[in-house]
Design a protein that fits this description.
It is a single-pass type II membrane protein. The chain is an alpha/beta fold. The protein is built from 17 helices and 20 strands. The radius of gyration is 47 Å and the shape is elongated.
């Protein structure tokens, strides 16, 4: 027990001693450290005490002090020199450090640029592999038009069957297709007046000859012609079969012949012999009866009262306002006693349109002082064109009745009414439309430009005209203006339209449109000086597309199908069936899934159809059209350096085919001018004249459907150009 108590006491004392040591030891250390810090602080202000503390200044002589001072000055200068050297070394190191930092940043920038360039190359290689696979998997090469096939001899003689007329209900029964190959280009030969002076007046034939020479299908080679065109009429003697047989290439039955009757006299019938036999020839005239008109073979012409050629839009009035002074107009007189049926229609028109109403009408059916004798049974016109213009230009609609002679489907007087209504922008109302023959109705939809009603609708005519809104009135008026300017306004337009209709029947496409020449401003032996392009400071963070070699857009792929698939639009919408274009903005597109099911050639779907974000979107062109490139046309005038800067910024632009520079200045560029090398050809065109419109000309050097036209000082980023290009090909 005692041993245990003593042990406990000993342990307690030991713990107290250890605790005291732990408390006292830090206090002692803190004391000495504080004292040392205080002494060091006081000594910091006496750094020179040991140097200047001499034992006894009084015992030193003046020379010793001077020596000491000189020694101190020397030490000071030495220290200053050392400090300057150290400062110079420090500045040098700082400069080297800054330079190294700049090199590092440049290296990082170059690394990013090289990585972007590598990414572009990878995308380009991928696209090239896709193109290679398409070429390998292609079953047949792209077809090109075969050699032009033309006849070598004039038509052979086939005796004419002695019947009144051939039953030519279509071109197959009466047309020789062997003379008109699909690749022939539809050449036609026009008879000179010396070859058939008895069939037409010499003056009219010369006018028509001068007009037809502007047609691109015209040829002087009678042996190679597909069609033979002859003008008849305007003679004192009647035309008979014997005179037709005297045509050099009549061939016995008149096959592949078009006989135009362009009489300026609308009050007399064509002067044909009663027993004339036109054989297989196509007759084109304005006078037609239902018995002799061979539907699908003969052609009903409009009135040829216009000038020989040129623009006719200047003679037409303004199309606004939509509603004019008179709601409906008509002026004419009957030169014979009409049938009861026809007379009832006329009386109904006068009765129902002259009732009490706020609308105004111009209806005149007597013309006592302006009558002209005629042997044609129809509603004759009153006065001259100048007089009729006064009320037609104030009429919203004008009445065009069917001929009084129920056997006639068209007369020159009726065609004159149609011609003047279109010319003066009065919408024609065809009364008894079901028995009226309209010009070129084989291809023209007349009900888009006119009101077509049957005779039984006359009591409702006023109500019907009132229901037509202003926007439809203006649309019909614009459509009529287009028909007038394109097909009826001049003798040239009538002849060209007739030939185009025949060509359309036999399935021959028109000739390609002629591009504007692109003469280079440089001579053949001159090679411009090249230079590296200026790399832009700010490049896009990601690739905008692959860099591909220039390739031409596929063109003229629908030569033999556009007339069948979009023939209606050609004649009634676009109004240009006379030329063949390499591509149009109205070409049909494939559905979005067709590129994955059998029609994927040339397409570049985004991420093979899986979609994705910006990276996948930039790697492929996408869209519902095959791959495409674009051409940039730059207009410039004596601003060389500005042009060079603009060209340099185009370096590395994806999908760029070539750059066309339209040089508007009469002065050629300097020979020492350095042209940037941008990866695509730069073609400099010498403009014929200084005009801002030169940028819009269809130059033959343009090989892509998409074209970007800019000024030489335009500054567009690559992403902006690519956005516009993608928007262009997707619309």
């Amino acid at each position: 027990m005692f041993l245990c108590l003593s042990t406990v006491k000993f342990n307690s004392r030991l713990l107290l001693i250890i605790l005291a040591l732990l408390v006292i030891t830090p206090l002692i250390g803190h004391y000495y450290l504080s004292k040392e810090e205080k002494d060091g602080f006081e000594n910091s202000y006496n750094t020179h005490s040991k140097v200047e503390a001499y034992e006894d200044y009084g015992v030193l002589r003046a020379t010793d002090l001077k020596h000491r001072i000189a020694e101190l000055v020397r030490i000071k200068n030495s220290v200053n020199n050392e400090l300057r050297n150290i400062e110079g070394k420090r500045q040098k190191l700082l400069s080297e450090l800054s330079l190294n930092h700049k090199k590092i940043e440049d290296a990082k920038t170059e690394l990013i640029r090289q990585e972007a360039e590598l990414e572009k190359l990878k995308i380009s290689v991928k696209q090239a592999q896709v193109a290679e696979n398409e070429a390998v998997a292609q079953n047949s090469p792209r077809l090109a038009p075969p050699t032009v096939i033309l006849p070598a001899n004039p038509p052979s003689f086939i005796p004419l069957v002695k019947t009144h007329s051939y039953k030519c209900h279509n071109m197959k029964n009466c047309f020789d297709y062997s003379r008109c190959s699909l690749t022939s280009g539809f050449p036609f030969y026009f008879y000179h007046s010396e070859e058939f002076s008895e069939l037409v007046s010499t003056s009219l034939n010369k006018i028509v000859f001068q007009v037809l020479r502007y047609n691109p299908h015209f040829t002087n080679s009678s042996d190679k012609a597909c069609i033979y065109v002859a003008l008849i009429g305007e003679t004192h003697n009647s035309i008979n079969t014997t005179q037709l047989n005297q045509l050099p290439f009549w061939g016995g039955d008149g096959r592949n012949h078009i006989l135009f009757y362009l009489s300026k006299n609308m009050y007399n019938r064509p002067n044909f012999d009663q027993n004339i036999n036109f054989g297989r020839a196509i007759i084109a005239q304005s006078f037609w009866d239902e018995k002799n008109f061979r539907l699908g073979h003969d052609i009903l012409l409009p009135a040829s009262f216009g000038p020989p050629g040129g623009d006719v839009w200047m003679d037409s009035p303004y199309m606004l306002p939509a509603r004019r002074k008179y709601l409906l107009s008509f002026e004419g007189y009957k030169n014979v006693n009409s049938s009861k049926n026809q007379q009832s229609f006329v009386e109904m028109v006068q009765t129902f349109l002259t009732q009490t109403t706020i609308d105004q009408f111009y209806i005149k059916t007597d013309c006592k002082n302006n009558r002209i004798g005629s042997n044609v049974f129809d509603w004759c016109l009153c006065g001259n064109e100048t007089k009729r213009k006064e009320f037609l230009t104030q009429s919203t609609f004008t009445l065009v009745p069917a001929p009084l002679d129920i056997d006639m489907i068209s007369t020159a007087m009726m065609q004159a009414r149609i011609y003047e209504s279109l010319k003066f922008s009065a919408i024609p109302v065809f009364l008894e439309h079901d028995r009226i023959g309209l010009p070129f109705d084989e291809v023209i939809d007349w009900c888009r430009a006119a009101v077509c009603i049957v005779g039984e609708r006359v009591p409702e005519l006023h109500w019907l005209l009132r229901t037509i809104p202003d926007n439809d009135i203006l649309m019909m008026r614009r459509q009529g203006r287009m028909l007038y300017e394109k097909y009826f306004g001049t003798v040239q337009s009538i002849l060209d339209t007739t030939l185009a209709l025949i060509r359309n029947r036999i399935g021959i496409p028109p000739l390609p449109v002629i591009d504007v020449p692109s003469p280079s401003i440089f001579s053949e032996n001159f090679k411009p000086i090249k230079m590296d392009p200026i790399i832009p400071d700010a490049e896009p963070e990601e690739s905008l597309g692959p860099l591909e070699p220039p390739f031409k857009s596929p063109d003229f792929k629908r030569n033999y199908t556009i007339m069948k698939v979009q023939g209606y639009e050609l004649w009634n919408g676009w109004g240009d069936p006379f030329k063949l274009y390499p591509y149009t903005p109205f070409d049909p597109l494939l559905p979005s899934d067709a590129k994955f099911i059998g029609s994927g050639k040339g397409f570049r779907p985004v991420n093979n159809g899986a979609g994705g974000a910006g990276k996948e979107f930039c790697q492929s062109l996408g869209g519902n059209s095959p791959r495409e490139q674009f051409t940039i046309v730059i207009l410039t005038y004596e601003r060389d350096q500005v042009l060079m800067n603009s060209l340099s910024r185009l370096n590395g632009l994806p999908y760029l085919n070539k750059v066309l520079v339209v040089w508007n200045s009469p002065k050629p560029p300097l020979e020492d001018l350095r042209w940037p090398e941008i990866g695509v050809p730069i073609h400099v065109i010498q403009a014929a004249k200084n005009s801002l419109n030169n940028r819009f000309l269809p130059y033959e050097a343009i090989e892509t459907e998409a074209v970007l036209s800019v000024d030489d000082d335009a500054h567009l980023r690559h992403d902006e150009i690519m956005f516009g290009f993608r928007r262009c090909i997707c619309t």
